[in-house]
Design brief:
By secondary structure, the chain is mainly alpha-helical. 54% of the residues lie in helices and 7% in strands. The protein folds into 2 domains: 4-182 and 295-323, Rossmann fold, CATH 3.40.50.620; 201-289, Tyrosyl-Transfer RNA Synthetase, CATH 1.10.240. The protein is globular, with a radius of gyration of 21 Å. It binds adenosine monophosphate (AMP) and tryptophan.
């Protein structure tokens, strides 16, 4: 049997190069050889306030981007989390089998809540919903960026604990990250990860950015004053980040790129990177605009939801039985 894969992306703002390089690229690679389920996790997005109409739109945006980067609904199941209510149901069961201590240790919660007493409860229990997503589909592998590794480790702990307590129920999943690009950094502050929520739009490149915007963001990106192109994450985080992006989009190893630019300045390197990124984004954008308004998109999500719902219900039957919920 093929290994099972599950992953998800939040429909909050537009997908950026970090999401693409760290996560979506793997989604596409895996769909040919594995049994893949990819979700648009709108229930995770409401952990922070959202405009309802905008959330509906960005949910469709992300679905269209999934297909624009190469996900094929004939190969992978694509669906929206809130259309399968078993996610919320399992999440509650896991909530009752987890500890506040282990959730308090999640670095994403610490970052996002900043120690505030008025942090939304959903932000705190967010990793349990994520664990439910993964465990419902018996996933062996979860392709994500490096920032989600801790959440996968928690999911493993929860699955093992549940299995020990109630008998074999869940598959224990493994994290899968990219060797190059598991953590793409912000262009303006290369010691922080590129994120959808940073205020400065030049900190990230969205997959839908126009060529002029891409140019501006890359040309303005923070580097250093040494003037030598070499890969050194601690001393030269800016150039190292750009080298990573260059390497991924050109298909060349980082060493090769470094060699190619021996003796060149940052200006030329950045100009070439602008071209490479724009060349890569152009076909994605063309496909996105074709799909976004199509009937096809809705059909894919409806069918995906039905397929995913059937798998999720099977798992929930097992779970309800184990924990003692009545079956009338
Ligand atoms: P999110 O936007 O938080 O829903 O993230 C979607 C996927 O992109 C997850 O697998 C993240 O781990 C991944 N991701 C987000 N930001 C980055 C980044 N800066 N570098 C690499 N991967 C990222
Ligand atoms: N928490 C993930 C993020 O912010 C998104 C996510 C939700 C996810 N559920 C998931 C990723 C299940 C992988 C598997 O990036």
């Amino acid at each position: 049997m093929k290994p099972k894969v599950f992953s998800g992306v939040q429909p909050t703002g537009n997908i950026h190069l970090g999401n693409y390089i760290g996560a979506l690229r793997q989604f596409v690679e895996l769909q040919d050889t594995m049994d893949c389920v990819y979700c648009i996790v709108d229930m995770h997005s409401i952990t922070l306030p959202q405009d309802p109409e905008q959330l509906r739109q960005t949910t469709l945006d992300v679905a269209a981007l999934y297909m624009a980067v190469g996900l094929d609904p004939k190969k992978a199941t694509i669906f929206v989390q809130s259309t399968v209510p078993q996610h919320a149901e399992l999440s509650w069961v896991l909530t009752c089998n987890s500890y506040t201590g282990e959730l308090s240790r999640m670095t994403q919660f610490k970052d996002k809540s900043k120690g505030s007493e008025s942090a939304p409860t959903g932000l705190f229990t967010y990793p349990l919903l994520m664990a439910a997503d993964i465990l419902l589909y018996d996933a062996n592998i979860v392709p994500v960026g490096n920032d989600q590794k801790q959440h996968i480790e928690l999911t493993r702990d929860l699955a093992i604990r549940f299995n020990n307590k109630f008998g074999d129920t869940f598959v224990v999943p493994d994290y899968k990250g990219m060797e190059v690009g598991a953590r793409i950094m912000a262009l303006d502050e290369p010691t922080k990860k590129m994120s959808k929520s940073a205020e400065n739009i030049h900190s990230r490149i969205s997959l839908l950015d126009k060529p002029e915007k891409v140019k501006k963001s890359i040309m303005k990106s923070t580097t250093d004053s040494e003037g030598i192109i070499r890969y050194d994450v601690s001393e030269k985080p800016g150039i190292s980040n750009l080298l990573t992006i260059y390497s991924v989009f050109s298909g060349k190893k980082i060493d090769e790129v470094v060699q190619q630019y021996e003796g060149s300045g940052y200006g030329q390197f950045k100009k070439d990177l602008v071209e490479i990124v724009n060349e890569h984004l152009d076909p994605i954008q063309k496909k996105y605009y074709e799909i976004r308004e199509s009937e096809e998109l809705i059909k894919v999500l409806k069918e995906g939801g039905e397929k995913a719902g059937a798998i999720a219900e099977n798992t929930m039957k097992r779970v309800r039985e184990k924990i003692g919920f009545i079956n009338l």
